[in-house]
Amino acid sequence: MSNYNTITELENEKRYAEAGYGRLFAYNKDRVNAMIDARTKAKWIRKMTPETTDELQNNLFYSGPATFVNHRLDVKKHKIAKMDLKSAYLAYLINDKIKKPGIFRIKHHGVLPLSDDIQLYVIQFNCSTESPFVSWFLNQAAIQKKKVQSDGSRIYGTIAIFASHWMNQLKFINHFLEPEEAQVITTYSFHGKKTVDVKMSQIKKLYQLKELGVLEAKMMLVQATGWLSIIDKPTYYHMVQYIKFYLMETAYKYGFEDEIFGNQTDCILYRVTKETEDVYDRIKNDKLSLGQRTSSIGTYTFQFVDYDDLIVNPARVVLKNA
Amino acid sequence: MPKKNTTVFNPRIKKRINNLSRAINKIEPSLSNKLLFAEFRIEDIKPGINTVKYRKNGVAQEVRYDELQNLSQAEQGSLVAGLRVDRYELRQERAIQQLQEKGKISWQFKRSLIKDNPVLLKSIIEVEEILLDSEKESIKTAFEEIDIDTIEWDTEAADFFEYKPGQEDNLFDFYRPGEDGGFTELNQFTWNSFKVLRGIS
Q1: What is the Cα gyration radius of chain B?
Q2: By C-alpha distance, which of B52, B49, B46, B44 is closest to B27?
Q3: Is A83 helix (H, G, I), strand (E, B) or coil?
Q4: Any residues with CB less than 8 A from the CB of A68 and at least 6 apart, and which?
């Protein structure tokens, strides 16, 4: 049993990723080895859907978190609003109204129309490198890993994107690309029970501790969700893409999409102008919450900063004191 | 006042397939796999004699066949995705119906699948290979006896294939990787055929 520890032991040894895994995904076990447990769950999923596992777990290139800077936007003389989604991934996991991918998958050739069920679209694209599609749906790492190809002016490849009526990412792609620049080649539908049962009470408990400033709780919350990609990539990327969709939906609904200076997974920075100065009030008044809970999990927090407070790299922008 | 007893006219599957094809052929072919299908929520498509009825984002629409090409590209793209999927589902239903009625699938029907539904054609050939030594009458009887599910078949299949101790071979039995007698694609037709072949009720 030496490879197996109690959650308390893992916390004492500062192994927060594993402790977080234990709390969120294996709380019913006295002792846990996160890697063995995650791989066992992954094997179980492979048994369920052997004919799609290789493609969904290993071969497909999923659209990941959006990280970009809009260098064309002149922000130096403006205030910049930084809005963060609080514990975004956990808010997704804790919200039962958001459907999660089922464990049984069926591959369909060509297009399945959108429905209320979760579907994964494998999309072939060929577009300008300047397109907002590149910023929102392709990240720099993918380009470096040659998952997509580029000749400098055009970029092309195949990418997997989730969509349903309540998470219609495709309408954004239609907004960014011309019809002839993208087409669906395969659709996967998801059925049956969700992949992992999340211990809701543990999320709430850790979130409360995090809010009280307990660093260990924050570390566990931040690191635990990464295990999902070992267990099941569709489950992990549905979570990642839902957060991205939620941010895009917010930007377009509140009309500040043209003022976005940067995006960083669960945070948007936008230029404050006459047109966007009321965004903060409107979002607060509408009580937007991804978590749909009485607590603040999944709500937006705002900071207003100057350009000099930021570190701006070619592909990302962060706060100097963060 | 007594409720008026109304009967809903339900045209034959073959007629509905033909009407769907007629509508599909009126729409620009290059829109088929484009992402425009995500622009509108299209439901309850009913291709009739002169018009196609459907709901677009919840609002009822009725468009003459010869006016389909005048719709916006986004609406055509959304509509054609629904039309093609409905036709694919109906063709699968029709294949099962032919096995129920005649114990075989006609070559005319198979020929109609070559261009647009080659995957279904492949599934039909797989089923025919499995049934090669069976009499038409026994095929007919076997397909008539099973409760065929054309609507919730994917949920039914997911329930059946869900990993359960002691039933690990269910999926292997369906696909038989590397062996003869399995299916390469899970769809309404192969699932219902599998039910017949394995006597799953």
Answers
A1: 19
A2: B52
A3: strand
A4: A135, A136, A139, A262, A263, A315, A316
Q: Which two tokens stand for residue A198?
A: 């999340």
Structure tokens at B128: 């025919």
Length of chain B: 201
Query: In this complex, do B35 and A191 lie within 8 Å of one another by their Cβ atoms?
Result: no
Residue A242 to residues A160, A166, A173, A208, Cα–Cα distance (Å): 13, 10, 15, 23
Smallest Cβ–Cβ distance between A192 and the set B32, B37, B162 belongs to: B162
* Domain of B38, in residue numbers: 13-120
| Cα-based distances in Å from A252 to A66, A175, B132 | 16, 11, 58
| pLDDT value at residue A64 | 92
- What are the structure tokens assigned to B114, written together? 């070559």
The parts of chain A modelled with pLDDT lower than 50 are none
Residue B89: inside a domain? yes
Beta strands A67-69 and A260-264, pairing class: antiparallel
In chain A, where are the structural domains located?
7-319
Q: What is the pLDDT of residues A158-190, one digit of tens each?
A: 999 999 999 999 999 999 999 999 999 999 999
User: Does the residue B141 lie in any domain?
Assistant: no
Grouping H, G, I as helix, E, B as strand and the rest as coil, residue A119 is strand
Read off the pTM: 0.88
B31 touches chain A (CB under 8 A): yes
The 10s digit of each residue's pLDDT in A50-99 is: 778 888 988 899 999 999 999 999 988 899 999 999 989 989 998 989 99
**A109: nearest CB among B30, B37, B119:** B119
- Quote the ipTM score: 0.79
Pick from B27, B33, B35 the residue to mutate for testing the A interface (most A CBs within 10 Å): B35
Task: Give A164 to chain B, closest Cα distance, Å.
Answer: 9
Give me the number of domains chain B comprises. Answer: 1
Contact of A213 with chain B, judged by CB distance below 8 Å, is answered with: no
Distance from the B138 Cα atom to the nearest Cα atom in chain A, whole angstroms: 30
Contact A192 B41 (CB under 8 A): no
Residue B143 covered by a domain: no
Domain membership flag for residue B187: no
For chain A, what is the mean pLDDT?
89
